[in-house]
Amino acid sequence: MLLPKFHYHEPSTLEEALQLLSELGGNAKVLAGGTDLLVRMKQKIDMPSHVISIARIPGLSSITPRNGHGVSIGSAVTAAALAKDELMRDRFAPLALAAGRLGAPMIRNRATIGGNLVNGRPAAELSPPCMVLGAILKLKSLSGEREVSVNDFFRGPGDVFIEPNELLVSINLQTPPPWSGGSYTKLGARKTLEISMVNVATLITLQSPDGPIIEARIALGAVAPTPVRAFAAEEFLIGRDPSEELFRQAGEIGVGMCSPITDHRGTMEYRCMMIEVLTRRSLVEALVQARSWKS
User: Fold this and answer.
1) Is 2 inside a domain boundary?
2) What is the distance between the alpha carbons of residues 269 and 199, in angstroms, rounded to a whole number?
3) Do residues 32 and 84 share a domain?
4) Count of structural domains, the chain
C-alpha cells in the first residue's frame, strides 16, 4: 500500500518543531520511529496533511541520569536502547523487560517510548511498566510546558491527554527505594510480533530482604479500554509477608479491576484467567529482584 500525499518537515531544534505544531495543529502528525504511524497512514486510518519528524532534535534520543535520584528518558529513545541500557535494566527493570519484548528486533530498533505512549493503545507494551514506575511525562508547547502523571495520561483507546500543539519530550522516573524489585510479563500467541492478550508490570518494595511488603504497584494492559492500575490488589499486598499464595490472591483481586473483551486473540474468560496467572508470575519475579537489591 502506498502512503497518502503529505508535506514532510524535519526540524533540527525543539523550538522549530513546536512552532510547526503551533501553526499546523490538528493537520499534523509527529513522526518518531514510524512503526505505528506509517502503518496507519497506509491503511488510510490517519491521513495528516503534514508529518513532522523529530529524529534530528538534540536530546530526545538520550537516557540521562538525574543526580542519582532517577532518570530522564527522551521521547525518541528506542525500545532497543531501553532494553540494552545498564541503568534501565538494573533499576527500572519492568520498562527494560517490556522494551525487550516489543515486536521483533527490527521493530525495537525503530519504535520509540514516546510513540508507544502517545498512541494510547490498550495493549501497548510500555504503558504498564511506566505506570508502576510512576513516570511523569513532560509535554511542551510554544506557550510553555506541563507535567502529567502517566496514570492520568490515558483517556480511552487511542485517546491521550495531549493537545495538538504539544510534544511529549521526556519521560521522567524516580529511582525505586532500596529492596525494590520489578518485572514485566506478557501473553501472546507468538513470542514476537504479537499484540499482547494480557500484559502485566509489577513493582514491590520490601522493608528488608526478609521483611514484609511496604509498597506494591501492579499495572495491567490489554484488559480494559486503557491500561489500568490494580489498586485493590496493591493495597491487599501492603504489610503482608510475600509468598506465592499471597501473590495468587492478589492476581484474583486484580481480575476485578478489568473488563477484557473477546476477540480473535482470546476470549474474555481466558484473559481473566491469565490476569491472575501473569500477575502471580510477575510478582514472584519482582520478589526475587527485590531480595537481590544491590546498593
Assistant:
1) no
2) 15
3) no
4) 3
Q: Are residues 141 and 93 in the same domain?
A: yes
- Per-residue pLDDT band for 147 (boundaries 50, 70, 90) equals very high
Output the nine-digit C-alpha cell for 94: 519492568
CATH of the domain at 283: 3.30.390.50
In this structure, are residues 152 and 161 in contact, taking their beta carbons and an 8 Å threshold? yes
Regarding whether 279 and 204 lie in a shared domain, the answer is yes
- Residues of the domain holding 244: 180-291
User: Is 285 inside a domain boundary?
Assistant: yes
Query: Are both 131 and 104 inside the same structural domain?
Result: yes
Three-class HEC string of the chain? CCCCCCEEECCCCHHHHHHHHHHHHHHEEEECCCCCHHHHHHCCCCCCCEEEECCCCCCCCCEEECCCCEEEEECCCEHHHHHHCHHHHHHCHHHHHHHHCCCCHHHHCCCEHHHHHHCCCCCCCCHHHHHHCCCEEEEEECCEEEEEEHHHCEEECCEECCCCCCEEEEEEEECCCCCEEEEEEEECCCCCCCCCCEEEEEEEEECCCCCCEEEEEEEEECCCCCCEECHHHHHHHCCCCCCHHHHHHHHHHHHCCCCCCCECCECHHHHHHHHHHHHHHHHHHHHHHHHCCCC
Residue 76 contacts residue 54 (beta carbons within 8 Å): yes
Mean pLDDT of 43-51: 93
**In terms of pLDDT, which residue wins out, 188 or 178?**
178
In the predicted model, what is the mean pLDDT of residues 106-115? 95
Average pLDDT value for residue range 126-139: 98
Asked whether the predicted pLDDT for residue 295 surpasses 90, the reply is: no
Confidence of residue 270 (pLDDT cuts 50, 70, 90): confident
